[in-house]
């Protein structure tokens, strides 16, 4: 089981800037919990995501000496990937490839074809720099724009990623549109069809629907889950009303019910939860 904590996703849409020192202290607390990966920041235009304009400064303040957690940074184009790749502390570069053409334009100002060209270049860059590309299939469970969506379309995108050599693909429920009826068939079809790819679930959800979504992905064989403490955050490019992230504490409850070890230091998690309350309360 791999748990990926996403403070970047929790912070990115907040209107008030969280001071760099506060971000750094919170991330350092999260680094002690034992998450597989920390989605900690993004190298994108500060005009697009002003909240994360200090990612390089935050990175410089992280204490990785006592943590096994790997760092992931989100990038929106090849230039951002080249910047992120210069930092040896970063293990993963994450790129949002949208199943929806409309959202690709809104999110990265590209066509889907242009984005796929970037993905190929980013994967090659990662190979040269000792990093791994994580492709997020945004709007992976449908979209609000009327763009075509079907399991076959998602499979076709995955096939193109596999052909490029991408090894981690996270199906992303960018607006909380997924249900068990869409989650289970997708993972059940994709996981055996692409044995060389590790599939993850980046599920946005309302408080009442989280359990069915996690269960649907888990039953279908997914063992990589993204979450954010408190269920905070969402994609500011997707809608005005943000649908929150999957709450990490809910993921932990689900795993405990299943008798599955999370691998986390629960005391450290409690400290991070307490800090999250103060970090996000005033923003």
UniProtKB/TrEMBL annotation:
Q: Which Gene3D superfamilies match?
A: Aldolase class I (3.20.20.70)
Q: Which domain of life does this protein belong to?
A: Bacteria
Any idea which UniProt keywords this protein has? Lyase, Metal-binding
Where is the Pyruvate carboxyltransferase domain positioned along the sequence?
1-270
In terms of CDD domains, this protein maps to: DRE_TIM_HMGL
Gene Ontology molecular functions: lyase activity
Q: Identify the Pfam families for this entry.
A: HMGL-like (PF00682)
Mind telling me which InterPro entries this protein's record contains? Aldolase_TIM, HMGL, PYR_CT
TM annotation in the entry: none
Q: Does the keyword ATP-binding apply?
A: no
Keyword Membrane assigned: no
The UniProt entry's sequence similarity note says: Belongs to the HMG-CoA lyase family.
Protein name per UniProt: Hydroxymethylglutaryl-CoA lyase
């Amino acid at each position: 089981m791999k748990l990926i904590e996403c403070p970047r996703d929790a912070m990115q849409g907040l209107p008030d800037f969280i001071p760099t020192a506060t971000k750094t202290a919170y991330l350092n607390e999260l680094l002690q919990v034992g998450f597989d990966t920390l989605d900690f920041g993004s190298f994108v235009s500060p005009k697009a995501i002003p909240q994360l304009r200090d990612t390089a400064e935050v990175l410089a303040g992280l204490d990785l000496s006592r943590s096994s957690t790997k760092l992931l940074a989100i990038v929106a184009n090849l230039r951002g990937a080249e910047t992120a790749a210069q930092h040896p502390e970063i293990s993963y570069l994450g790129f949002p490839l949208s199943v929806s053409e409309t959202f690709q334009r809104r999110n990265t100002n590209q066509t889907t074809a242009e984005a796929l060209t970037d993905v190929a270049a980013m994967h090659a860059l990662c190979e040269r720099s000792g990093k791994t590309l994580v492709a997020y299939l945004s709007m992976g469970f449908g979209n609000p724009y009327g763009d075509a969506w079907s399991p076959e379309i998602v499979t076709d995108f995955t096939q193109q990623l596999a052909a490029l050599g991408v090894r981690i693909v996270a199906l992303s429920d960018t607006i909380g549109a997924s249900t068990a009826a869409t989650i289970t068939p997708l993972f059940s079809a994709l996981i055996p069809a692409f044995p060389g790819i590790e599939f993850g679930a980046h599920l946005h959800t309302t408080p009442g629907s989280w359990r069915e979504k996690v269960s649907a992905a888990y039953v279908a064989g997914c063992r990589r889950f993204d979450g954010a403490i408190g269920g905070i955050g969402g994609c500011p490019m997707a809608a005005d009303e943000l649908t929150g992230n999957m709450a990490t504490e809910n993921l932990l409850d689900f795993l405990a019910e299943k008798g599955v070890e999370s691998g986390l230091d629960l005391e450290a998690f409690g400290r991070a939860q307490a800090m999250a309350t103060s970090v996000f309360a005033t923003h």
